[in-house]
Amino acid sequence: MEVRLCRDVKTLGRCAAADAASHISRAIEHRGHARIIVATGTSQFEGLAALVAAEGIDWSKVVGFHLDEYLGLPTTHPASFRRYLEERLVDRVGLRAFHYIDGEAEPEEECRRVGELVAAGPIDVALIGIGENGHLAFNDPPADFETERPYLVVDLDEACRRQQLGEGWFPTLDDVPRRAISMSIRQIMKSEAIVCSVPDRRKAEAVRAAVEGPVTPQVPASILQRHPRATIYVDPPAAELLSRRPEDV
Length: 249
Description:
Elements: E1 2-5, H1 9-31, E2 34-38, H2 45-53, E3 62-66, E4 68-70, H3 81-90, E5 97-99, H4 107-118, E6 125-128, E7 151-155, H5 158-166, E8 179-183, H6 185-189, E9 194-198, H7 204-212, E10 230-234, E11 247-248
Parallel strand pairs: 1-10, 1-11, 2-3, 2-6, 3-5, 6-9, 9-10
Antiparallel strand pairs: 4-8, 7-8
Helix pairs in contact: 1-2
């Protein structure tokens, strides 16, 4: 795992996008197509915008996979991750395919359906973030580090739900769903490369615990320490609590 310090959020987005674009283009060159995982949330705004604007990616040879989705939330809701991905990625580039999680389907059957799709081949790069509680996708602490199931039905803890409220996606805490479908930790870790974007001071404690603390299900993102090609991009506020200054980019 590497940690790279970017001078501001826009630079972070450009650097993360350039990293992801290189993995995508390399996969297309070597194998004829690429398979990617895409996260949502405010941490991904700049990176996705820069990735969409990147030159040289043949999107017709790219298949995308959805990282997580709330249960029971329609695509018309402003917090729908399907809606987020449509507006910020899928409707703006011509992907070969994008496999959404349908949060309104029967949950276990939907986990099986998308799980079979994502497990059918290698993932070249996963674009992810880290939650304020240290979660990866919607794997809140204590996360399941053992299951081989590609997707799980998970309960969202209060810290996770408060983050969604604080980011402005819902009017009240009661409106934030309590359950979701999430890609599992082991499935994320099977990605050939991981590009993790983590801006903002409110993520500083999670970054410190993930980077410098022990690998533990109580800090799900700490598992990234065990990935040989994971890169975490942070801005100065997110890096504030680290004891060692990351490499500048």
